[in-house]
Amino acid sequence: MARRREMKLSNRKGLCLWMTAAMLLLCGLTVFAQAPAPAQAAPAPAPSGPASAMDAPLDIKAAAPPSADDMAKGDPGGTKTGTVSDVVAADTKKGLTLADVVNQAGQNRVAINFVWTLITGFLVMFMQAGFAVVETGLCRAKNANHTMMMNFMVYGFGLFAYWVCGFAIQMGSAGPYGTLGGGGAGLGGEFAINLFGKSFGLWGTHGFFLTHGGAYDVAAMVMFLFQMVFMDTALTIVTGAAAERWKYIAFCVASVFMGAFTYPLYANWAWGGGWLSTLGSNFGLGHGYADFAGSGVVHAVGGVTALAVAIMIGPRIGKYTRTGKPNAMPGHDITWVLTGCFILAFGWFGFNPGSTLAASGNGALRISSIAVNTMLAGCTGSFGAILYMWIRYGKPDASMSGNGLLAGLVAITAPSGFVNTIGATIIGFIAGILVCVSVEFIERVLKVDDPVGAISVHGTNGLWGVISVGLFADGTSNYGGSWNGVNGSVTGLFYGDAGQLVAQLIGVGTLVGFVFTFSYVANWIIDIVIGQRVSARDELAGLDIPEMGALGYPEFVLKPELEVEPAMAAGD
Amino acid sequence: MKIVGILLALIGWLIPILALSMTQSTGARFIACLIGIAVSLIGILGVLNKAHLEHAIWKRG
Is the distance from CB of A427 to CB of A472 less than 8 angstroms? Predict the structure, then answer.
């Protein structure tokens, strides 16, 4: 009987893996079914006739470049390094022309934006380390390897799925990228339907495997890297809410699905030219759904998916008494938790300021304001949480202070590019209180077990961040003169535009109504096919050995498990 | 009940979208959004979650 059951389970796992493989194959076929990318427009012909001023050789001696002898003496003051001598001539025989200098200026601007976007992307990538240690620290020692390995491998699973089709679905219609030199121009295909006489963009159709439809392009590579690390942030949120009881194989399949479809779909609607971003141009709702760096796209998508999975797999054994009263299940390492919070706060300076995709031109110098807003909101978030806990429970709770910092950062992510410092401070403070109230509500009223508070930090405050754009955006930002194709600056209700708030609320409704449902149904199918939850025996033993085959802390003596009802321990 | 909860969540999402074509008034669209979000939340937290809690692990035995 047991053997038959094992075989059945094995067949189900095999079926699931086949389904995943078929899904990826389908994406591959889609690539080859598409029409070839349009040929790049030929460059404008050079003006004929007598040499224009642009082509005339320049007398570079007039710019007084340092001589070889000067340079040989060294440049301790930094005044001789980087002069006209460093501008490369297109035709060395002809010498340097004004056209060379102008082209160099343009390439320098794009290079600054490339480097800025890439480096901020690297910072966001490092946030994975922060999430890993925060979540592991908040879990019990017997699950350390399992929790760490979920956070580790979500990077690879997410990246692979996003490369296959996620990027194409999200950004396959978002080219060309203005701040990145107009690259990615071939990424211009959006599948759209006509509704109420307006076009509703649903998903991109170019850029599968990063090779098709003009995706083999230096600017597209920059965009892929930056968007990929955002996507991975959303995926790793789910592992926190489902920690200590999520079957590893189910986590693998769910992560691939989310990286391939759930995240890219909503991200397309918000950032890839989809229907949420056109609510302004189509229906006169402000500038359409505005989410500067992803309170909604990244954090709320991760948070509502985390809620769907946490509801489905149920609470950990011992979390609730038979009367439904919650038991505290403290994490094993608060030093890891707070260290991880600092790593995340550091990475957030990539998350928000990097979302300008530029440091030069188009109002991109607002990166300083965005960075300060980020800093302030995180700070007031931790203030709000520590005050709430201190007043309510008499002690400044460490883990909730950390969650308050993260809640403030999550909430400021969407409005960071549109609000002033007063707005950022208020948004962060409210987020800090909100995360405490939300954790209590989810644990005590909903009886949903969320070991790390991911649903409250990312879900609740992600939604708050989206709403706060519609309230606090002060109308002073200017990223190239328009946003989502609507001229002028994003302006919230407090500064005179009620339509912007409605656009934001439609985004919130989509996150709660559509993204939750989509995630729930996908995870329901995974649950039916391979099962989402580990057995009670494995859960009580700790998931390190049964699921991963090795302990996180092999030389430590772990405290014995809580006493639980025998029936619970026996039931699968 | 799980299906009912999911359907309510979806219906809640459709309410503000339908309101886009039914009215030009920002106030009416605002109210439609609030109603839609409330319906979705009732579906998720009030119906779907409750259906799962009926068989919660801590109620067994």
Answer: yes
> For residues A540 and A536, what is the distance between their CA atoms, to the nearest angstrom?
6
- pLDDT for A562 equals 54
pTM for the predicted model, two decimal places: 0.89
Is A232 within 8 Å of A258 (Cβ atoms)? Answer: no
Maximum CA extent, chain A: 94
CATH topology assigned to domain A106-548 = Ammonium transporter fold (1.10.3430)
Pick from A195, A317, A516, A525 the residue to mutate for testing the B interface (most B CBs within 10 Å): A516
Nearest CA to A421 among A368, A382, A492, A383? Answer: A368
Residue B30 near chain A (CB below 8 Å): yes
- Map out the domains of chain B as residue ranges: 1-36
From the first residue on, what is the mean pLDDT of each consecutive set of 10 residues in chain A (572 residues)? 48 51 48 41 47 81 85 89 88 89 93 97 96 96 96 96 96 87 84 92 94 87 96 96 96 97 97 95 95 96 97 94 91 95 97 95 92 97 97 94 97 96 98 97 96 96 98 92 92 96 97 97 96 94 93 82 49 42
Domain ranges of chain A: 106-548
Backbone angles phi, psi at A97, to 5 degrees: -120, 170
The three-class DSSP label of residue A97 is strand
Q: At what angle do helices B26-41 and A498-509 cross, to 10 degrees?
A: 20
| Share in percent of chain A as helix, strand, coil (round to 5) | 60, 5, 35
E strand or H helix at A162, and its extent?
none
* Nearest CA distance, B4 vs chain A (angstrom): 12
